[in-house]
Design goal:
The structure is a homodimer. Chain A is of the alpha+beta class and about 475 residues long. Chain A folds into 4 domains: about 90 residues, Uridine Diphospho-n-acetylenolpyruvylglucosamine Reductase, domain 2, CATH 3.30.43.10; about 120 residues, 2-Layer Sandwich (Uridine Diphospho-n-acetylenolpyruvylglucosamine Reductase, domain 3), CATH 3.30.465.10; about 110 residues, 2-Layer Sandwich (Alpha-Beta Plaits); about 80 residues, Alpha-Beta Plaits (2-Layer Sandwich). Chain A contains 16 helices and 18 strands.
Chain lengths: ~475, ~475
């Protein structure tokens, strides 16, 4: 690495490319939000190119100098995928925030990478279209980051993850080469699907500068409910029953376990809509085409589910306010963060049939070691995704690590993933080999060394490149 | 290439790996179906391993010998992606045809690559599940081929292409390395999505040996209709209207132009359900949850579309026989093949808003050069996909080529693709650069040379590797 050699010259040259307003240094860098689980920004310079061409010139120069580059988006990631070292250069695409084209006939939108998710969501509304990706960070996360991390969120069961929503990508590679693969079609089998190299690879193979995204028709109806169930087998059966009965309209299927429900419906918090003694609660959403018809059908099939004994109780909101208060029980993480200490959050996925035994195993491993620990589960079960919050009561680093092992180790035998949607970053790097074989990781390394031979793009994230002079 | 050096020794060694029943030679090879647009099988040996381990050993040996290997599946491809040279070795996975696990709770199935699509479709029915990929070759195509070519077909608008339906892949690389990435979850962001290397790359980066596929709930209702429209703008508006009004249930949206409709409804062929003077016809399918409710809703919204002047006429089948005869007008290619000579078929995609002008341009280019030519269009318009049949009247190779240029050249300015779903193979290799930039193709080459340095996997397909000793 030559990062420290001629750094001043490099900075000067970069300033010539992006102009004075394109550079942030010193206090301007330190004043910025460092991201979850990161105390401070270690790097001292942020380069903010205003065009793809500037990104290309910046990268060509950095590659020549062996300068490590960490691309930062809205900083809403949970795995320290954007953490920096003092010598790193931060690249931000925040000045590239144009929505370049909304094509309502083709139902696509072309955006620069710095566009904020919520801005896009709002911009397409007037065409009676939706961009269906939705997640907690919507107000700050950028679409380039969403693409680079293959973001998921609340409606994956219906619309898929970012990988399914991105039709085309423009990216800048380590050496400054611009790869323009801005396809606008749902079907395109003309050669390798190059864009896959830049989706979900966390900025390690290229910098996403532009995207073509798929839009969907705005739903004309929305129905939600919360139900209570007596065991996990019924949760899985109820998922199938509702998915079949809703014929394509199911858009969210969120499972809350009793512990999660109890924390959020304790006295003085959210009003409990259902008796809190059941082991599982499901919050479900259906998006359809006709409010009256769909509401009636929704109620009918819930009655069927009650009659068949699939579910024990159900509550249907009768107003928007009631709907919001139901969803607040799932979305409010404030009390979880208060009650579960030290807060450790996990985002795993595994086959649905193995979930119940897995949850029991994690509970046993954790509670046997830390008898006063707290644990709760929240799952996008329709996608095989469980979020787990654990507070062992100890913030010793050995205990933090041991809790991680309790969560990750049991995934290996069931073919589970240590990261369903958050990615690997630095946070989960040590556990990647639980979900991925040595052969797979070796293949990732081969891609990395082929496309970024000096390892300057977000080095050290996801996995280590062994070898001299590179992280 | 050392393919001719010690070939006999290689064959002997391969026979030791796969056993006598694993090898086909001479007449046994020549007796097999050579595939569309291919007169004969040029290669003389077919190796048929019975396990992934055998595939691995075969490949390790072939790699050592620099022996070119062409993997063949059900031979239903349309782009000569499985064509062989005399010195090539054919690899067939037809003996690996086990459906290894159907997991109705997780709604996944694990199959070996040689399983025939229709066999799988039928096997999952008893679990009230469907594998939604469907295409004309269902009775012969193999899932390994479907994955390697990212097959699409009739219901892409609802369920996506093979890329969206494959959750996990096991593949054997050029040097025999087995990459097992048999993920069963919808969400998995643990590192790079390795399986993308083997999806849609036409057997040039690895041999797919096993797949985990996503299953969907069996629809409980089906409604179809055929409508007539006066112009293409209305076709696009009608697509949006129906997609919105059907709230997730739209499963097929096929456009037939007047020429296609006229050929198939001529006297003595299919009975015309609608007046044949309209320029466009749409055949539409909706899969839902309740036959009675959905049929009523379907009829209501079609009436709305008529009242709004979106469509001019509509016919709703009142029986399964009527439904089948409607679909036969679209699916029957026999008369198209009879009337359009010499038959040249195309499979392009382009943004919907550019389709009308594109169709007009192709018509003009073709008819001005070959005044007695015939041309018709059939589109999965919901996916941006047009199939075009052209008969210029001349089978001179210069004319064949000139017709191809008339179809492909106008795609460049609208960002269209020379292959929506059929792939590139040999057939479209010369036109790849119309849809892909030099940078993209260079990136494809870098992946190829990294993962298959001797270029033994389906060499010469999709693009050429420049350099000595390799195709």
């Amino acid at each position: 690495m030559k990062a420290h050699v001629g750094k001043d010259d490099l900075i000067t040259a970069l300033r010539e490319i992006v102009g004075p307003s394109g550079m942030l240094e010193g206090d301007d860098v330190q004043a910025r939000y460092p991201g979850y689980f990161m105390d401070r920004i270690a790097a001292t310079v942020i380069v903010r190119p205003a065009s793809t061409e500037e990104v290309s010139r910046v990268m060509a120069l950095c590659n020549e100098h062996g300068q490590a580059v960490v691309t930062q988006g809205g900083m809403s990631g949970w795995v320290r995928g954007t953490q920096t070292e003092p010598d790193d250069l931060i690249l931000s695409l925040e000045r590239m925030h144009a929505i370049e084209e909304i094509d309502p006939v083709n139902r696509t939108v072309t955006v620069q990478a710095g566009v904020i998710l919520q801005t896009l969501q709002e911009a397409v509304e007037r065409f009676q279209l939706v961009f269906p990706l939705d997640l907690g960070g919507r107000g700050s996360c950028q679409l380039g980051g969403n693409a680079s991390t293959n973001a998921g969120g609340l409606r994956v069961i219906r619309y898929g993850m970012m990988r399914q929503l991105v039709l085309g990508v423009e990216a800048v590679m380590a050496d400054g080469t611009v790869v323009s693969s801005l396809n606008k079609m749902i079907k395109n089998n003309a050669g390798y699907d190059i864009k896959q190299l830049f989706l979900g690879t966390e900025g390690t193979l290229g910098i996403v500068t532009r995207l073509v995204l798929r839009l969907y028709e705005q739903p004309l109806s929305s129905n939600s409910c919360m139900v209570a169930l007596t065991d996990f087998t019924k949760v899985a059966d109820f998922l199938r029953f509702m998915d079949r009965s809703l014929g394509g309209m199911l858009s969210a299927f969120e499972v809350l376990d009793r512990d999660f429900y109890t924390i959020n419906t304790a006295a003085g918090r959210h009003r409990p809509p259902l008796d809190g003694s059941y082991p599982y609660f499901v919050l479900l959403e259906s998006l359809g085409y006709d409010q009256e018809r769909d509401a009636q059908h929704f109620e009918n099939i819930l009655n069927h589910a009650l009659e068949q004994g699939l579910i024990e109780d159900a509550v249907l909101p009768r107003s928007e306010a009631e709907r919001e208060s139901l969803w607040a029980i799932r979305e409010d993480l404030e009390h979880i963060l208060t009650d579960i200490k030290p807060f450790q959050a996990f985002d795993v996925s595994l086959p649905i049939g193995t979930m119940e035994a897995y949850m029991a195993e994690v509970r046993t491993l954790v509670s046997s070691r830390w008898p006063s620990s707290k644990i709760c589960f929240l799952g996008h079960v329709g996608d095989g995704n469980l979020h787990i919050a654990i507070g062992s009561g100890s913030d010793r680093s050995a205990d933090i690590r041991a809790v991680e092992e309790c969560v990750y180790q049991p995934l290996q035998s069931v073919g589970g993933s240590v990261s369903a949607e958050h990615g690997i970053g630095l946070e989960k790097k040590d556990f990647l080999q639980i979900s991925r074989s040595a052969t797979e990781i070796d293949l990732m390394r081969r891609l990395k060394t082929t496309l970024d031979p000096k390892s300057i793009l977000n080095p050290g994230k996801v996995f280590d490149i062994t070898g001299e002079g590179v992280r």
